[in-house]
Amino acid sequence: MGSPETADQNYPAEIIGYVEPWICSPGETVDVKISSTEPEYRYRVVRLIQGHQGPNAPPKRSEEIPSMQPGTGKGRFQVAQTGSYAIVQDFNQPNMQHGLHVSLYFQPYLCVSGHTQTLVSTLDHPTKTGFAAVLTPEGYVSFWIGTGQDIDVIETKFLPASRRWAHLSISLGTMSLEYTISPVALFAEQPPLAMYGHETFSNRMAHAVRTSLLFGAGYVSAPKSPSANTHPTNFFNGRIDSPVLRSLGPQAEILARYAFALKMSSDTIVDISGRGMHGTLINAPTRAVQGYDWDGTSVDWTKASYGYGAIHFHEDDLDDAGWASDFSIHVPTNLRSGAYAVEVEAVNGRARDSITFFVRSTPETRAKVGAKVALALSTFTYLAYANERMYDQSKPSRMLAPDPNFRIHKDEDFEKMERRTDLGLSTYDVHLDGSGVMYSSAKRPMLAMRPGHIHWALHRPREFSADLLMIGFLEHHGIPYDTVTDHDLHSKGVSSILPYNTVITGNHPEYPSLESLDAYTAYAKLGGNIMYLGGNGFYWASTLDSARPHRLEVRRGDQGVRTYTVPGGERVFSTNGQLGTLWRSRGRAPNYLFGVGCCGEGTGPGVAYKRTEASLDKNYAWIFEGIGEEELLGEHGFGGGASGDEIDKFDLRNGSPANAIVLATSIGHPDDFGIFPEDVGFPILHTLGTQTNEIRSDIVYYETVGGGAVFSVGSINWYCSLGWNGYENNIARLTMNVLQGFLQKGSTQ
């Protein structure tokens, strides 16, 4: 949830924002949410064509949309409220005259956090009613008790161990408290001794008949706080399992018994007491994780009868920034598909932003454009990387470069990222408690998704800004095209691309869902042509929450290039019950359909390709028209040569089609390129660029069973060379040769 704030007087001028929904159809209305330090701004809507600026770049291009009226607005500074928790808004607790008993299992991941962490709370500051069980800033268990007049603090000497379960049992009588805290043995490990205690209150404990029950947070920041919090605070970093609340005395009854393993794919916590005290999860804490009784018998929560009753809460979770809308935009019914931006600039000129969103095609807009080509924008990849902070060298998820002269590219986008720690994390980051981030949300500003973005480590366009180089290429050559998104492929399947003769991928289509991968496969079987013009594509499995399509889920296993490893038993998506990890680990390596699969990466400059003997066959002359037999391909680009960043190779062992032809292969990768771990066996040798031929890009072509063909280049850097010298280069020529050849093949329709 978000709230308006006032920026500190030393805070720099800044405008950021997001559009909701960020992917829309003609005829729909989108809400624009802006945070501005400046008092007034003006805005307009443009279609983005090409955003990269620099030496040898094509001209920056965008088109204002006259039918979407420009306007002005009053600036306000908005922040997002991070931190996940569960809340039962109207918790009914009758028959409390004898008190309350509460029990639960908890597993802290960040015992000493520097602030209070709340396990469970009904504490209400204005009325001084209810209770809270918390961890102190030093990590000890403590209890806060409302007496109607004050809030008593009862401390214990129990210091829980990090990543170890403990059972908490509290009996809250009218004038006293009894507690038992029992560590749970981990397999054969001897746990610490249990701790017992009995304490007396200063006055009779007070309960409200109806209150808010929270797990993982509370509304009271401190017992002696002068005022109540409007938002929950004191977020817990760790797991909670099997909470039970019951009244005490002769008429004791179960008030709530929560089974967190139920409705796993939802944001609901289920009360199985029969009283209907169900609750809601806020900011997407992690589900489908090991509980206190997990023993490895089952590693799939969809098949397990026990072991998955925990939810992992984090103080830095964010699912919805919750900002107020500043204005709305109606998308004209005749607006063509594409990437668009709301360009916002302070009237005083001190700050600006381009807030990106995407518009789908309709049969009418497609016919008007005459599109036979679809560019598939990698919106799942944009989400997976959204607001990544791998530059933070204090985190275990940091990205390290082997070059001692490596420097971070710091521009305005980067500085915004450093400042705006409230905007959530990417699936490449780890939480403050060291656990991996598994969900990413579009309901927040995604600061790297800007038309002129330069990657902080690679010093070149990447993801969205690189994909715009292909849009610029299509516009430059007058090729009629539409754009589709990963979201369209996921939700609509092959029907989203079937009208087109050729589908071109983005430069980094890394995160397909099963549905989107099936869409590409069905399209190829039906005779469609695919141009995979990127690298590290179709690598990690992901999925989209169908009830909350702004939320992407990724679960990394113990293979693949990764910044963290999801523990065993936690690699099945909470969203749909499918296995996460690599597509290669699931038996669908990208090689099967696209001919190549990722094998290496490096932050240094890319290198060129050299044609193979097979490419000289007259059957492939159309691909190399205007290109010499000895001519190196892609010697130049915004990231060095055309083979760079993350790269893919042809490999029959991983399923590359037997009829595929390797037309060119990269040459001369230096030692700042390393091999992917899944391509190395024991002993681990020959892992750097000069030490093995397994680190390379292959350009591959093959004809499919449906009569179409697949052309793959195996490099994220391809688009950075495509745009070099204003699209006047042999990578651009080769790309155009293939596209024109595919367009002459006919259509899937």
TrEMBL record:
<feature type="domain" description="N,N-dimethylformamidase beta subunit-like C-terminal">
    <location>
        <begin position="286"/>
        <end position="729"/>
    </location>
</feature>
<dbReference type="Pfam" id="PF20254">
    <property type="entry name" value="DMFA2_C"/>
</dbReference>
<dbReference type="InterPro" id="IPR046540">
    <property type="entry name" value="DMFA2_C"/>
</dbReference>
<dbReference type="InterPro" id="IPR013320">
    <property type="entry name" value="ConA-like_dom_sf"/>
</dbReference>
<protein>
    <recommendedName>
        <fullName>N,N-dimethylformamidase beta subunit-like C-terminal domain-containing protein</fullName>
    </recommendedName>
</protein>
<feature type="region of interest" description="Disordered">
    <location>
        <begin position="52"/>
        <end position="73"/>
    </location>
</feature>
